[in-house]
Design a protein that fits this description.
This protein has 278 residues and is mainly β. It is built from three helices and 19 strands. The chain has a 17-stranded antiparallel sheet that branches. It has a two-stranded antiparallel sheet with strand order 4-5. A hairpin with a 2-residue loop joins β11 and β12. The longest helix has 11 residues. It is globular, with a radius of gyration of 19 Å. 34% of the residues are buried. About 7% of the residues have low confidence.
Length: 278
């Protein structure tokens, strides 16, 4: 994954093959009404509804017999190098927390889509050998840094520092992530990612290139989806998908700032008997 912002080219470069863990919620049809059958886009279909079903389906987000979009939380773990104050910072090797410890070492992102929240834990080493450690958090309209995960929840255990100026940037990271982007695109088309857990095919109009504030164009065989970033007024994202409808890049413009994200080398870490595209 590569991330760049504006002319400063702040970059997060992580090793290929990010490990991700999704969690899902169970869904019950209200009133016992029979659910609509899953929607399967026709091969080669280029309307927005087809793209907004193919995209989360190939990203492993449509689950169960009825293929509802049920992803509510996601964990990223990374390795490689990030930029800290313009300097490269080598990420510490990932280590699972032992009993009684809070969090993990290395680079870890915990995203939650039901309340638009994200926590990024960073531990890395600068060229001079100095260790850098920080926890970056956003939840709705609030952002803060922690010196340890959950700082301040228990009096005397850790310090939380308000970071109001970072709200927009951190929400953009959340909604421009590989799974966050299709959720944001669906939100722009009128499907609230915080409330609606349904197969998107049963909720979208067919045969059009624009629904609500989300639209699709095609660059040859490449779908290009434009959508607003939830919670960041005026921020617009443009996502390019690869030939498997996987998130390849997302460029977000927010006022004078431009954020660029690039993703590649996807892999399916499920058991071979439960592959997403089996």
């Amino acid at each position: 994954m590569t991330f760049r912002k504006g002319a400063t080219l702040t970059r997060v470069a992580l090793a290929a093959g990010l490990a991700t863990v999704l969690s899902f919620v169970a869904y019950a049809q209200p009133g016992g009404a029979p659910p609509p059958p899953p929607y399967t886009p026709a091969e080669g279909a280029k309307d927005l509804k087809s793209v907004l079903v193919n995209w989360p389906w190939h990203m492993g987000m449509l689950r169960g017999i009825e293929e509802h979009e049920l992803a509510v939380t996601l964990e990223y773990r990374g390795e490689g190098t990030i930029q800290v104050n313009g300097q490269p910072c080598a990420i510490a090797p990932y280590k699972e927390a032992r009993e009684g410890e809070l969090g993990t070492s290395g680079y870890r992102i915990s995203n939650a889509y039901q309340f638009a929240g994200s926590r990024t834990q960073i531990e890395c080493t600068l060229p001079n050998g100095r260790k850098y450690s920080n926890v970056e958090v956003v939840s709705g309209k609030y952002a803060w840094d922690e010196d340890r995960p959950g700082a301040g929840l228990v009096p005397g255990e850790g310090t939380a520092k308000p970071m109001r100026e970072k709200v927009d940037e951190r929400l953009i990271r959340l909604w421009a992530s590989p799974q966050g982007a299709p959720k944001a695109a669906l939100a722009g088309a009128g499907i609230d990612p915080l409330k609606v857990f349904r197969n998107p095919g049963g909720l979208l109009a067919e045969g059009t290139s624009k629904i609500g504030n989300t639209s699709v164009t095609w660059d040859g065989a490449t779908p290009v989806v434009t959508f607003p970033i939830p919670g960041v007024d005026g921020a617009t994202a443009v996502a390019r998908l690869d030939d498997r409808f996987m998130t390849e890049s997302v460029v977000v413009k927010n006022g004078r700032d431009t954020y660029e994200f690039a993703y590649s080398n996807y892999n399916d870490y499920n058991n071979e008997l439960n592959r997403i595209e089996s």
